[in-house]
Amino acid sequence: MKFHLITLFPEACDAYLSASIIGRARKEKKISIKYQNPRDFVAGPAGSYKKVDEKPYGGGPGMVMMALPIVKAVQKSLGGRTPKLKNPVIVWFKPGAKQFTNKDADALAKYSDVVLVCGRYEGIDERAKKILKTMATVKEFAVGEAVYTGGEVPALAIVDAVTRRLPGVLGKDASVEERRIASSAVYTRPETISYKGKNYKVPKVLKTGHHTKIDAWRKKK
Questions:
Q1: pLDDT in tens, 58-85
Q2: DSSP labels, the chain
Q3: Beta bridge partner(s), residue 101
Q4: What CATH number is associated with residue 134?
Q5: Residues 145, 47 within the same domain
Q6: Which pLDDT score, from 0 to 100, does residue 80 have?
Q7: For range 172-195, the mean pLDDT
Q8: Same domain (yes/no): 56, 84
Q9: Are residues 160 and 193 in the same domain?
């Protein structure tokens, strides 16, 4: 499965996507990560600053990312002017859009390529989205109720959520927490922890080996 991140800061994303389970999935070629920087699609001398933002029409604070650098970056990810990918989807982040869920992660896992458009500043010229809809399916999501500096954090969350669902990434399907009986409270060794004169113990039911009772306890939690 291929993830394509459209971002001004690929180095910030790659640090997270090269570590732990996601990094291992990349090494084992269960997923691939590719980047397209919108600045690379702005004309100008080599080494010069490539401007990708402008003041918003109608006034207002901040700057808005221009449409065409985004469109061209996505177009490159899709394989050029005539898209060559068989089953791509474009993810557009928007505060107030549908909240991204585990079901959405399962749905994205069915696509061959997921293109994640990471906006910055006050957002992206809305015309970019209209053009992208002529190229592939566009899904809009919000990841959490907070507003972030850019789309990179939501994009990393989606790559993580989708990747861990792919066969073999976690070793066992049961390791995907929401597919098994799990609780928000988990414990490990030692059985008793002493801190400032007080003992903190593992709940007795977890030491019984009685799986029915343990599952019932976890459901309550």
A1: 998 999 999 999 999 999 999 876 656 7
A2: -EEEEE-S-HHHHHHHHTSHHHHHHHHTTS-EEEEE-GGGGS---TTS----EEPPTT--SS-EE-HHHHHHHHHHHHTSSS---SSEEEEEE-TTSPBP-HHHHHHHTTSSEEEEE---TT-B-HHHHHHHTTTSEEEEEB-SSSPPSSSHHHHHHHHHHHHTTSTTSSSSGGGSGGGS---S----S-SEEEETTEEEE--GGGGS--HHHHHHHHHH-
A3: none
A4: 3.40.1280.10
A5: yes
A6: 77
A7: 74
A8: yes
A9: no
- The DSSP bridge partners found for residue 5 are 35, 116
Under the banding of pLDDT at 50, 70 and 90, the label for residue 174 is low
pLDDT category at 173 given cuts 50, 70, 90 is low
